[in-house]
Amino acid sequence: MSRDVLSVAATEAADPIQLVAPDGTRHHHPDFDAVLTDVNDDALAELYTDMVVARRIDAEATALQRQGELALWPPLLGQEAAQIGSARALRPDDFVFSSYRENGVAYCRGADLDDLLTVWRGNASSGWDPFAINMATPQIIIGAQTLHAVGYAMGVKLDGGDQASVAYFGDGAVTQGDVNEALAFAASYRAPAVFFCQNNHWAISEPVDLQTRVPIAQRASGFGIPALRIDGNDVLASLAATRIALERARAGGGPTFIEAVTYRMGPHTTADDPTRYRDPDELEAWAAKDPLVRVERYLATRGMAVDGFREAAEHRADDVAQALRRGLIEKTDPGVDQVFGEVYAEEHTWLARQEEHYRRYLASLGEAGDGPGDGSGDGPDAGEGDR
Question: Which of 1, 74, 195, 369 could form a disulfide with 257 if both were Cys (CB 3.0 to 4.6 A apart)?
């Protein structure tokens, strides 16, 4: 690598680094290109397929919520490149700590499709087994996962390992105390952690310029952490930046902060209406920077048959969406024993009292509350509509 990531951050933090422009033009960057020598056209087409699948998962989950099958869903539309590029840079033994929107990352880590939806349907208090895929279940408390990531990274360092942890969060989290404390600890202990901020421009209805007057990446320098500011709609830039940050972490260089400048095309969650606070012209401008379309355009300039790999990607996405829907509809609701029995490792009188009250409630409805599905009435597939 011709320059250390520190010098890259110092000279280019103001302007997002871009390798593939919206019109498909390929820009070159010495440090980023140096870590992408193994990414040929076929590999880029695979990244494209991952993005198509992530978008389809998102669309299917949104539809399921609108049909009353999920209580809520946090869309990722527009953020596919940031998630797929960074996730594909990870080793299997690295550990991911995410917010509730990184479903594209979870797909890349190998999460079962069913486990992407169980929490949002109310089938479980959590999702997948964190240690099966080395990814913690999504953190709902804004920014709390950054502390978890740093704690894990400090443990790795003390154990003498070369794994890294990655914390994903949005622009709305950067003003949280947890995130700033995590940055301070990571810098002080040179923890092998990567802070990956997806700046999607909106923290629910609050625009990013109300939270910071400078690019978010510049905040990291106050903690002594180098930062990279990238075009978050560019999957190659996302892949390269994360590889550089991971390489630095493994070599003992400490944490790196990545700001992926992207845009949340949909609502904050399916309970949100962004038309109430967002200018449609802004949405149109970002739609022209679509992360999938730019890859198609670039590969077309390389002579690849775009229609062919697009069709293959869409077939793959359809298969995933069908499996996602089928798995959700066929899932059995948890019984009372499972709901209350998997909260604490030992008996807890406060929880036991809640369980007793709930069983009395079920008894008043003529339900025993012992078997699978008991305690949920007819379940969400009974046509109750949005909840």
Answer: 195
Q: Which two tokens stand for residue 30?
A: 């010495």
d(CA 148, CA 97): 7
What does the alpha-carbon distance between residue 151 and residue 170 come to, in Å, rounded to a whole number?
A: 20
Q: Establish whether 276 is a catalytic residue.
A: no
Q: Which residue has the tokens 């209580």?
A: 71
Q: 275-309, pLDDT tens digit by residue?
A: 999 999 999 999 999 999 999 999 999 999 999 99
* Amino acid, single-letter form, for residue 166: V
pLDDT band per the 50, 70, 90 thresholds, residue 131: very high
Looking up tokens 């970002």 gives 286
pLDDT class for 112, splitting at 50, 70, 90?
A: very high
DSSP class of 137: P
- Say what angle helices 291-301 and 41-66 make with each other, to 10 degrees: 150
Please, what's the b/e burial string for 362-380 (b: 16 or more CB within 10 A of its CB; e: otherwise)?
beeeebebeeeebbbeebb
Given a contact cutoff of 8 angstroms between Cβ atoms, the answer to whether 56 and 318 are in contact is yes
264 is catalytic: yes
- Which H/E stretch holds residue 180? helix 177-189
Q: Is 229 one of the annotated active-site residues of the chain?
A: no
Judge residue 151's burial from the number of C-beta atoms within 10 Å of its C-beta, 0-12 exposed, 13-18 middle, 19 or more buried. Answer: middle
Strand-pairing partners, residue 258, are: 196, 228
Catalytic residue, candidates 55, 219, 264, 325: 264
pLDDT in tens, 164-184: 999 999 999 999 999 999 999
CATH number for the region 5-329 comes to: 3.40.50.970
Q: Are 31 and 2 in contact (CB under 8 A)?
A: yes
26, 91, 277, 361: which one is catalytic?
Answer: 277
- Residue spans in the chain of domains classed CATH 3.40.50.970: 5-329
DSSP code of residue 140:
-
| pTM attached to this predicted model | 0.89
pLDDT band at 1 (very low <50, low <70, confident <90, very high): very low
Name the percent of the chain in helix, strand, coil, to the closest 5.
50, 10, 40
Residue 268 CA neighbour count, 13 Å, CB half:
18
User: What is the H or E stretch that residue 231 is in?
Assistant: strand 227-231
253 secondary structure, DSSP code: -
